[in-house]
Amino acid sequence: MITAEERRTMANDIELDQIERTVSRARSASKHDVDLVGIQTNVSTREDTVPDGGYGWICTACVFLINAHTLGVNSSWGVFLAHFLSNSTFPEATQLEYALIGGLSISTSLLISPAVGFCNEKLGTRPSLLIGTALVFLSLLTASFATQVWHLFLSQGVCFGFGLGFLYITAAPILGQWFLKKRSLAVGIAASGAGFGGLVYNLAAGAGVESLGVQWTYRLLAFCTLVVNLICSILLKDRNSAVKPQPRGFKNIREFSHISVVLVILWGTFTELGYIVLLYSLPNYAQSIGLTAQQGAVVGAVLNLGLAFGRPAVGFFSDIFGRIDVATAMTALCGIFCLTIWVPAQSYSVLLVFALLSGTVTGTFWGTVVPVTAEVVGLQRLPAAFGMICLPLVFPTVFAEPIALQLASTSGYLSAKIFVGCMFLLGAASTWALRSWKICDTEKNEMAGSEGQGRNLLWLTPRRLFMNKRV
Protein backbone atom coordinates (compact mmCIF):
# COMPACT_ATOMS: atom_id res chain seq x y z
CA MET A 1 0.00 0.00 0.00
CA ILE A 2 1.52 3.33 -1.11
CA THR A 3 1.04 6.08 1.34
CA ALA A 4 0.12 9.65 0.36
CA GLU A 5 3.59 10.89 1.23
CA GLU A 6 5.22 8.35 -1.12
CA ARG A 7 2.85 9.30 -3.96
CA ARG A 8 3.83 12.96 -3.58
CA THR A 9 7.52 12.04 -3.66
CA MET A 10 7.13 9.93 -6.82
CA ALA A 11 5.19 12.72 -8.58
CA ASN A 12 7.90 15.22 -7.69
CA ASP A 13 10.59 12.89 -9.06
CA ILE A 14 8.68 12.40 -12.35
CA GLU A 15 8.14 16.17 -12.66
CA LEU A 16 11.80 16.91 -11.98
CA ASP A 17 12.88 14.30 -14.56
CA GLN A 18 10.62 15.86 -17.20
CA ILE A 19 11.94 19.32 -16.39
CA GLU A 20 15.56 18.11 -16.67
CA ARG A 21 14.88 16.46 -20.06
CA THR A 22 13.18 19.64 -21.34
CA VAL A 23 16.06 21.85 -20.18
CA SER A 24 18.58 19.44 -21.72
CA ARG A 25 16.77 19.53 -25.08
CA ALA A 26 16.54 23.34 -24.88
CA ARG A 27 20.24 23.59 -24.13
CA SER A 28 21.13 21.36 -27.07
CA ALA A 29 18.94 23.36 -29.44
CA SER A 30 20.28 26.61 -28.07
CA LYS A 31 23.85 25.44 -28.48
CA HIS A 32 23.10 24.31 -32.03
CA ASP A 33 21.50 27.68 -32.83
CA VAL A 34 24.36 29.57 -31.26
CA ASP A 35 26.87 27.55 -33.28
CA LEU A 36 24.98 28.28 -36.46
CA VAL A 37 24.66 31.96 -35.64
CA GLY A 38 28.30 32.08 -34.69
CA ILE A 39 29.37 30.51 -37.98
CA GLN A 40 27.18 32.88 -39.95
CA THR A 41 28.42 35.85 -37.97
CA ASN A 42 32.04 34.88 -38.52
CA VAL A 43 31.48 34.52 -42.23
CA SER A 44 29.65 37.79 -42.61
CA THR A 45 31.89 39.89 -40.38
CA ARG A 46 35.21 38.45 -41.44
CA GLU A 47 37.44 41.43 -42.29
CA ASP A 48 40.11 41.50 -44.93
CA THR A 49 43.65 41.52 -43.57
CA VAL A 50 45.82 43.92 -45.56
CA PRO A 51 49.21 42.28 -46.27
CA ASP A 52 51.11 45.57 -45.82
CA GLY A 53 53.94 44.12 -47.90
CA GLY A 54 54.71 40.74 -49.43
CA TYR A 55 53.73 40.63 -53.09
CA GLY A 56 52.67 44.22 -52.63
CA TRP A 57 56.30 45.26 -53.09
CA ILE A 58 56.34 43.51 -56.48
CA CYS A 59 53.22 45.49 -57.36
CA THR A 60 54.96 48.65 -56.14
CA ALA A 61 57.86 47.96 -58.52
CA CYS A 62 55.41 47.36 -61.37
CA VAL A 63 53.54 50.62 -60.78
CA PHE A 64 56.91 52.40 -60.44
CA LEU A 65 57.97 51.14 -63.88
CA ILE A 66 54.57 51.88 -65.43
CA ASN A 67 54.79 55.46 -64.17
CA ALA A 68 58.34 55.72 -65.54
CA HIS A 69 57.27 54.50 -68.97
CA THR A 70 54.10 56.59 -69.21
CA LEU A 71 54.32 59.81 -67.18
CA GLY A 72 58.13 59.77 -67.32
CA VAL A 73 58.17 59.36 -71.09
CA ASN A 74 55.44 61.97 -71.43
CA SER A 75 57.53 64.54 -69.54
CA SER A 76 60.14 64.33 -72.30
CA TRP A 77 57.64 66.25 -74.44
CA GLY A 78 59.29 69.37 -73.02
CA VAL A 79 62.48 68.42 -74.92
CA PHE A 80 60.57 67.80 -78.15
CA LEU A 81 58.62 71.04 -77.61
CA ALA A 82 61.82 73.07 -77.26
CA HIS A 83 63.22 71.43 -80.42
CA PHE A 84 60.06 72.06 -82.45
CA LEU A 85 59.86 75.70 -81.33
CA SER A 86 63.53 76.49 -82.01
CA ASN A 87 63.73 74.66 -85.36
CA SER A 88 60.27 75.42 -86.81
CA THR A 89 59.82 71.74 -87.59
CA PHE A 90 56.19 72.33 -88.52
CA PRO A 91 56.09 75.88 -89.95
CA GLU A 92 52.31 76.09 -89.88
CA ALA A 93 52.10 75.24 -86.16
CA THR A 94 51.73 77.91 -83.48
CA GLN A 95 53.03 77.93 -79.92
CA LEU A 96 49.49 77.44 -78.67
CA GLU A 97 49.07 74.28 -80.76
CA TYR A 98 52.34 72.83 -79.46
CA ALA A 99 51.31 73.64 -75.90
CA LEU A 100 47.95 71.93 -76.36
CA ILE A 101 49.60 68.69 -77.49
CA GLY A 102 51.46 68.27 -74.20
CA GLY A 103 48.41 69.00 -72.08
CA LEU A 104 46.18 66.89 -74.31
CA SER A 105 48.04 63.68 -73.49
CA ILE A 106 47.37 64.02 -69.76
CA SER A 107 43.90 65.53 -70.08
CA THR A 108 42.76 62.73 -72.39
CA SER A 109 43.94 60.14 -69.90
CA LEU A 110 41.84 61.80 -67.21
CA LEU A 111 38.84 62.30 -69.48
CA ILE A 112 38.48 58.58 -70.15
CA SER A 113 38.78 57.59 -66.47
CA PRO A 114 35.08 56.53 -66.23
CA ALA A 115 35.47 54.45 -69.38
CA VAL A 116 38.63 52.89 -67.97
CA GLY A 117 36.76 52.07 -64.77
CA PHE A 118 33.99 50.42 -66.78
CA CYS A 119 36.61 48.40 -68.69
CA ASN A 120 38.24 47.31 -65.43
CA GLU A 121 34.90 46.14 -64.12
CA LYS A 122 33.94 44.21 -67.26
CA LEU A 123 37.33 42.95 -68.51
CA GLY A 124 39.54 42.99 -65.43
CA THR A 125 42.80 44.66 -64.46
CA ARG A 126 45.22 42.81 -66.76
CA PRO A 127 43.31 43.26 -70.05
CA SER A 128 42.95 46.97 -69.29
CA LEU A 129 46.70 47.27 -68.69
CA LEU A 130 47.46 45.41 -71.92
CA ILE A 131 45.18 47.76 -73.87
CA GLY A 132 47.08 50.72 -72.41
CA THR A 133 50.43 49.14 -73.26
CA ALA A 134 49.43 48.72 -76.90
CA LEU A 135 48.09 52.26 -77.19
CA VAL A 136 51.21 53.89 -75.71
CA PHE A 137 53.44 51.93 -78.09
CA LEU A 138 51.26 52.79 -81.07
CA SER A 139 51.17 56.48 -80.19
CA LEU A 140 54.95 56.91 -80.01
CA LEU A 141 55.54 54.81 -83.11
CA THR A 142 53.07 56.81 -85.21
CA ALA A 143 54.44 60.10 -83.83
CA SER A 144 57.77 59.23 -85.46
CA PHE A 145 56.06 59.41 -88.87
CA ALA A 146 54.32 62.75 -88.25
CA THR A 147 54.69 65.27 -91.08
CA GLN A 148 52.04 67.75 -89.94
CA VAL A 149 51.19 69.08 -86.52
CA TRP A 150 47.74 67.46 -86.47
CA HIS A 151 49.49 64.08 -86.71
CA LEU A 152 51.07 64.87 -83.34
CA PHE A 153 47.67 65.85 -81.94
CA LEU A 154 46.35 62.38 -82.74
CA SER A 155 49.44 60.38 -81.80
CA GLN A 156 51.35 62.20 -79.04
CA GLY A 157 48.17 63.78 -77.74
CA VAL A 158 45.05 61.63 -78.03
CA CYS A 159 46.42 58.11 -78.55
CA PHE A 160 49.13 58.47 -75.89
CA GLY A 161 46.51 59.92 -73.52
CA PHE A 162 44.25 56.90 -74.01
CA GLY A 163 47.15 54.55 -73.29
CA LEU A 164 48.22 56.58 -70.26
CA GLY A 165 44.68 56.46 -68.93
CA PHE A 166 44.34 52.69 -69.25
CA LEU A 167 47.69 52.16 -67.55
CA TYR A 168 47.77 54.83 -64.85
CA ILE A 169 44.09 54.95 -63.85
CA THR A 170 44.05 51.15 -63.62
CA ALA A 171 47.32 50.73 -61.73
CA ALA A 172 47.24 53.66 -59.28
CA PRO A 173 44.52 52.44 -56.85
CA ILE A 174 45.91 48.89 -56.63
CA LEU A 175 48.67 49.71 -54.13
CA GLY A 176 46.11 50.95 -51.62
CA GLN A 177 44.79 47.38 -51.47
CA TRP A 178 48.19 45.94 -50.54
CA PHE A 179 49.29 48.38 -47.82
CA LEU A 180 47.91 49.99 -44.66
CA LYS A 181 50.61 51.45 -42.40
CA LYS A 182 53.08 51.78 -45.26
CA ARG A 183 50.53 52.93 -47.84
CA SER A 184 51.92 56.44 -48.38
CA LEU A 185 55.49 55.12 -48.59
CA ALA A 186 54.56 52.51 -51.20
CA VAL A 187 52.54 55.00 -53.26
CA GLY A 188 55.37 57.54 -52.98
CA ILE A 189 57.92 55.02 -54.22
CA ALA A 190 55.66 54.06 -57.12
CA ALA A 191 54.94 57.70 -57.96
CA SER A 192 58.67 58.46 -58.02
CA GLY A 193 58.81 56.31 -61.15
CA ALA A 194 57.50 59.33 -63.05
CA GLY A 195 60.47 61.30 -61.78
CA PHE A 196 63.11 58.67 -62.53
CA GLY A 197 61.55 58.01 -65.90
CA GLY A 198 61.42 61.72 -66.63
CA LEU A 199 65.07 62.09 -65.63
CA VAL A 200 66.24 59.26 -67.85
CA TYR A 201 64.01 60.05 -70.81
CA ASN A 202 64.60 63.80 -70.71
CA LEU A 203 68.35 63.19 -71.01
CA ALA A 204 67.86 60.36 -73.49
CA ALA A 205 65.45 62.40 -75.62
CA GLY A 206 67.77 65.41 -75.55
CA ALA A 207 70.74 63.30 -76.68
CA GLY A 208 68.67 61.29 -79.14
CA VAL A 209 67.16 64.32 -80.88
CA GLU A 210 70.64 65.78 -81.45
CA SER A 211 72.33 62.56 -82.58
CA LEU A 212 69.57 60.38 -84.08
CA GLY A 213 66.86 62.87 -84.94
CA VAL A 214 63.28 63.18 -83.74
CA GLN A 215 61.93 60.20 -85.71
CA TRP A 216 64.30 57.54 -84.38
CA THR A 217 64.12 58.96 -80.86
CA TYR A 218 60.36 58.43 -80.91
CA ARG A 219 60.80 54.87 -82.19
CA LEU A 220 63.29 53.96 -79.48
CA LEU A 221 60.92 55.33 -76.84
CA ALA A 222 58.08 53.29 -78.35
CA PHE A 223 59.88 49.95 -78.05
CA CYS A 224 61.18 50.72 -74.55
CA THR A 225 57.65 51.38 -73.32
CA LEU A 226 56.32 48.26 -75.04
CA VAL A 227 58.74 45.86 -73.35
CA VAL A 228 58.54 47.29 -69.83
CA ASN A 229 54.78 47.97 -69.71
CA LEU A 230 54.05 44.50 -71.09
CA ILE A 231 56.04 42.80 -68.32
CA CYS A 232 54.46 44.97 -65.63
CA SER A 233 50.95 44.33 -66.96
CA ILE A 234 51.51 40.60 -66.54
CA LEU A 235 53.00 40.81 -63.03
CA LEU A 236 50.69 43.42 -61.47
CA LYS A 237 47.85 41.91 -59.40
CA ASP A 238 44.87 43.46 -57.66
CA ARG A 239 43.06 42.29 -54.51
CA ASN A 240 39.55 43.06 -55.69
CA SER A 241 38.25 39.68 -54.57
CA ALA A 242 39.22 40.46 -50.97
CA VAL A 243 38.56 44.21 -50.86
CA LYS A 244 35.37 44.10 -52.98
CA PRO A 245 35.61 47.70 -54.24
CA GLN A 246 32.55 49.52 -55.44
CA PRO A 247 31.95 49.36 -59.21
CA ARG A 248 33.57 52.11 -61.25
CA GLY A 249 32.02 53.94 -64.16
CA PHE A 250 29.84 56.90 -65.08
CA LYS A 251 27.23 56.05 -62.44
CA ASN A 252 29.63 57.12 -59.67
CA ILE A 253 28.93 60.78 -60.46
CA ARG A 254 27.36 60.95 -56.99
CA GLU A 255 30.91 61.21 -55.62
CA PHE A 256 30.77 64.88 -56.61
CA SER A 257 28.19 65.44 -53.87
CA HIS A 258 30.76 64.75 -51.13
CA ILE A 259 32.57 67.87 -49.88
CA SER A 260 35.72 65.84 -49.21
CA VAL A 261 35.91 64.73 -52.86
CA VAL A 262 35.27 68.31 -54.06
CA LEU A 263 38.15 69.59 -51.93
CA VAL A 264 40.50 66.94 -53.35
CA ILE A 265 39.40 67.99 -56.85
CA LEU A 266 40.15 71.65 -56.06
CA TRP A 267 43.55 70.63 -54.74
CA GLY A 268 44.27 68.75 -57.95
CA THR A 269 42.92 71.51 -60.20
CA PHE A 270 45.07 74.25 -58.71
CA THR A 271 48.23 72.19 -58.46
CA GLU A 272 47.88 70.83 -62.00
CA LEU A 273 47.81 74.40 -63.34
CA GLY A 274 51.24 74.82 -61.76
CA TYR A 275 52.65 71.32 -62.21
CA ILE A 276 52.06 71.10 -65.97
CA VAL A 277 53.71 74.48 -66.53
CA LEU A 278 56.80 73.49 -64.55
CA LEU A 279 57.01 70.13 -66.27
CA TYR A 280 56.82 71.46 -69.82
CA SER A 281 58.03 75.07 -69.64
CA LEU A 282 61.33 74.89 -67.77
CA PRO A 283 63.38 73.72 -70.83
CA ASN A 284 61.83 76.47 -72.94
CA TYR A 285 62.32 79.05 -70.17
CA ALA A 286 65.98 78.08 -69.97
CA GLN A 287 66.41 78.88 -73.64
CA SER A 288 64.51 82.15 -73.22
CA ILE A 289 67.22 83.42 -70.82
CA GLY A 290 70.02 82.49 -73.22
CA LEU A 291 70.83 78.89 -72.26
CA THR A 292 71.35 76.13 -74.84
CA ALA A 293 68.86 73.42 -75.74
CA GLN A 294 71.04 70.83 -73.98
CA GLN A 295 71.12 72.94 -70.81
CA GLY A 296 67.35 73.23 -71.02
CA ALA A 297 67.07 69.44 -71.23
CA VAL A 298 69.31 69.15 -68.16
CA VAL A 299 67.06 71.57 -66.24
CA GLY A 300 64.05 69.42 -67.11
CA ALA A 301 65.96 66.30 -66.06
CA VAL A 302 66.92 67.85 -62.71
CA LEU A 303 63.25 68.69 -62.07
CA ASN A 304 62.45 65.03 -62.61
CA LEU A 305 65.36 64.05 -60.36
CA GLY A 306 63.68 66.06 -57.62
CA LEU A 307 60.42 64.24 -58.35
CA ALA A 308 62.19 60.89 -58.15
CA PHE A 309 63.63 61.48 -54.69
CA GLY A 310 60.94 63.77 -53.35
CA ARG A 311 57.91 61.53 -53.78
CA PRO A 312 59.18 58.59 -51.66
CA ALA A 313 60.33 61.05 -48.99
CA VAL A 314 56.95 62.80 -48.95
CA GLY A 315 55.25 59.40 -48.73
CA PHE A 316 57.49 58.30 -45.86
CA PHE A 317 56.83 61.43 -43.81
CA SER A 318 53.11 61.24 -44.64
CA ASP A 319 52.82 57.90 -42.85
CA ILE A 320 54.51 59.45 -39.79
CA PHE A 321 53.17 63.00 -39.54
CA GLY A 322 49.77 62.66 -41.23
CA ARG A 323 48.88 62.32 -44.89
CA ILE A 324 46.73 65.44 -45.24
CA ASP A 325 49.12 67.51 -43.08
CA VAL A 326 52.15 66.65 -45.19
CA ALA A 327 50.25 67.13 -48.47
CA THR A 328 49.27 70.63 -47.34
CA ALA A 329 52.77 71.61 -46.23
CA MET A 330 54.53 70.30 -49.36
CA THR A 331 52.05 71.89 -51.75
CA ALA A 332 52.49 75.26 -50.02
CA LEU A 333 56.28 74.84 -50.05
CA CYS A 334 56.27 74.42 -53.83
CA GLY A 335 54.41 77.71 -54.20
CA ILE A 336 56.96 79.42 -51.96
CA PHE A 337 59.86 78.04 -54.04
CA CYS A 338 58.26 79.40 -57.23
CA LEU A 339 57.80 82.89 -55.80
CA THR A 340 61.15 83.16 -54.01
CA ILE A 341 63.59 81.26 -56.27
CA TRP A 342 62.09 80.98 -59.77
CA VAL A 343 60.93 84.61 -59.97
CA PRO A 344 64.49 86.05 -59.71
CA ALA A 345 66.20 83.09 -61.49
CA GLN A 346 68.20 84.35 -64.49
CA SER A 347 71.20 82.01 -64.49
CA TYR A 348 71.84 78.33 -65.15
CA SER A 349 72.98 77.57 -61.60
CA VAL A 350 70.00 79.20 -59.89
CA LEU A 351 67.63 77.50 -62.32
CA LEU A 352 69.17 74.10 -61.49
CA VAL A 353 68.72 74.76 -57.76
CA PHE A 354 65.10 75.73 -58.33
CA ALA A 355 64.45 72.69 -60.53
CA LEU A 356 65.83 70.34 -57.87
CA LEU A 357 64.04 71.92 -54.90
CA SER A 358 60.70 72.44 -56.63
CA GLY A 359 60.90 68.96 -58.15
CA THR A 360 60.87 67.36 -54.68
CA VAL A 361 57.47 68.89 -53.89
CA THR A 362 55.83 69.81 -57.22
CA GLY A 363 54.45 66.30 -57.72
CA THR A 364 52.94 66.09 -54.23
CA PHE A 365 49.40 65.75 -55.59
CA TRP A 366 50.05 62.68 -57.74
CA GLY A 367 52.35 61.21 -55.10
CA THR A 368 49.81 61.48 -52.27
CA VAL A 369 46.35 61.69 -53.83
CA VAL A 370 45.66 57.95 -53.45
CA PRO A 371 46.51 57.76 -49.69
CA VAL A 372 44.77 61.07 -49.00
CA THR A 373 41.64 59.96 -50.86
CA ALA A 374 41.69 56.62 -49.02
CA GLU A 375 41.79 58.56 -45.74
CA VAL A 376 38.60 60.46 -46.54
CA VAL A 377 36.53 57.93 -48.53
CA GLY A 378 37.84 54.49 -47.48
CA LEU A 379 39.22 51.60 -49.54
CA GLN A 380 35.92 50.39 -50.97
CA ARG A 381 35.05 53.80 -52.43
CA LEU A 382 38.64 54.56 -53.45
CA PRO A 383 38.60 53.28 -57.08
CA ALA A 384 35.28 54.97 -57.84
CA ALA A 385 36.23 58.23 -56.12
CA PHE A 386 39.67 58.28 -57.74
CA GLY A 387 38.14 57.96 -61.21
CA MET A 388 35.73 60.81 -60.51
CA ILE A 389 38.55 62.98 -59.10
CA CYS A 390 40.57 62.52 -62.27
CA LEU A 391 37.72 63.55 -64.57
CA PRO A 392 37.54 67.31 -63.72
CA LEU A 393 41.34 67.59 -63.95
CA VAL A 394 40.98 67.47 -67.75
CA PHE A 395 40.51 71.22 -67.89
CA PRO A 396 43.63 72.37 -66.01
CA THR A 397 45.85 69.86 -67.80
CA VAL A 398 44.61 71.06 -71.21
CA PHE A 399 44.88 74.77 -70.54
CA ALA A 400 47.80 75.09 -68.09
CA GLU A 401 50.58 75.28 -70.67
CA PRO A 402 48.64 77.49 -73.13
CA ILE A 403 47.91 79.92 -70.26
CA ALA A 404 51.60 80.02 -69.32
CA LEU A 405 52.79 80.54 -72.90
CA GLN A 406 50.18 83.24 -73.43
CA LEU A 407 51.27 85.04 -70.26
CA ALA A 408 54.92 84.69 -71.26
CA SER A 409 54.36 86.02 -74.78
CA THR A 410 52.32 89.04 -73.68
CA SER A 411 54.00 90.17 -70.48
CA GLY A 412 57.08 87.99 -70.07
CA TYR A 413 57.74 84.91 -67.96
CA LEU A 414 57.45 86.88 -64.71
CA SER A 415 53.65 86.78 -64.83
CA ALA A 416 53.74 83.05 -65.62
CA LYS A 417 56.01 82.44 -62.61
CA ILE A 418 53.68 84.34 -60.26
CA PHE A 419 50.70 82.48 -61.70
CA VAL A 420 52.32 79.09 -61.01
CA GLY A 421 53.29 80.05 -57.44
CA CYS A 422 49.80 81.27 -56.61
CA MET A 423 48.22 78.08 -57.99
CA PHE A 424 50.25 75.93 -55.62
CA LEU A 425 49.30 78.15 -52.68
CA LEU A 426 45.61 77.84 -53.59
CA GLY A 427 46.07 74.07 -53.78
CA ALA A 428 47.51 74.10 -50.26
CA ALA A 429 44.50 76.11 -49.07
CA SER A 430 42.23 73.37 -50.44
CA THR A 431 43.98 70.62 -48.47
CA TRP A 432 44.00 72.83 -45.39
CA ALA A 433 40.22 73.00 -45.67
CA LEU A 434 40.17 69.21 -46.26
CA ARG A 435 42.10 68.80 -43.02
CA SER A 436 39.42 70.76 -41.17
CA TRP A 437 36.72 68.57 -42.73
CA LYS A 438 38.53 65.39 -41.68
CA ILE A 439 38.85 66.60 -38.08
CA CYS A 440 35.15 67.45 -38.03
CA ASP A 441 34.25 64.06 -39.52
CA THR A 442 36.32 62.26 -36.87
CA GLU A 443 34.69 64.27 -34.07
CA LYS A 444 31.24 63.59 -35.51
CA ASN A 445 31.88 59.84 -35.57
CA GLU A 446 33.16 59.90 -31.99
CA MET A 447 30.14 61.87 -30.78
CA ALA A 448 27.74 59.63 -32.68
CA GLY A 449 29.33 56.59 -31.06
CA SER A 450 29.21 57.95 -27.54
CA GLU A 451 26.19 60.26 -27.48
CA GLY A 452 24.25 59.39 -30.65
CA GLN A 453 24.50 62.92 -32.02
CA GLY A 454 26.94 65.21 -33.80
CA ARG A 455 25.51 65.25 -37.30
CA ASN A 456 25.22 69.04 -37.62
CA LEU A 457 28.77 70.06 -36.73
CA LEU A 458 30.25 72.90 -38.78
CA TRP A 459 33.40 71.58 -40.47
CA LEU A 460 35.14 74.84 -41.49
CA THR A 461 35.89 76.67 -38.26
CA PRO A 462 39.00 78.49 -36.95
CA ARG A 463 39.34 75.95 -34.15
CA ARG A 464 39.59 73.03 -36.57
CA LEU A 465 41.73 74.90 -39.08
CA PHE A 466 44.37 75.61 -36.44
CA MET A 467 43.94 72.51 -34.29
CA ASN A 468 47.24 70.84 -33.37
CA LYS A 469 46.33 67.32 -34.45
CA ARG A 470 47.87 64.72 -36.74
CA VAL A 471 45.62 64.24 -39.76
UniProtKB/TrEMBL annotation:
InterPro entries: MFS, MFS_dom, MFS_trans_sf, Proton-linked_MCT. Residues 260-471 form the Major facilitator superfamily (MFS) profile domain. Pfam families: MFS_1. It is found in: Membrane. The keyword Cytoplasm does not apply. The chain crosses the membrane at residues 55-78, 98-117, 129-147, 153-172, 184-204, 216-236, 256-282, 288-308, 320-342, 348-370, 382-400, 412-434. It is a multi-pass membrane protein. It comes from the Eukaryota. Its main location: membrane. Keywords: Membrane, Transmembrane, Transmembrane helix. GO terms for molecular function: transmembrane transporter activity. GO terms for cellular component: membrane. Signal peptide: none annotated. Belongs to the major facilitator superfamily. Monocarboxylate porter (TC 2.A.1.13) family. This is Major facilitator superfamily (MFS) profile domain-containing protein.
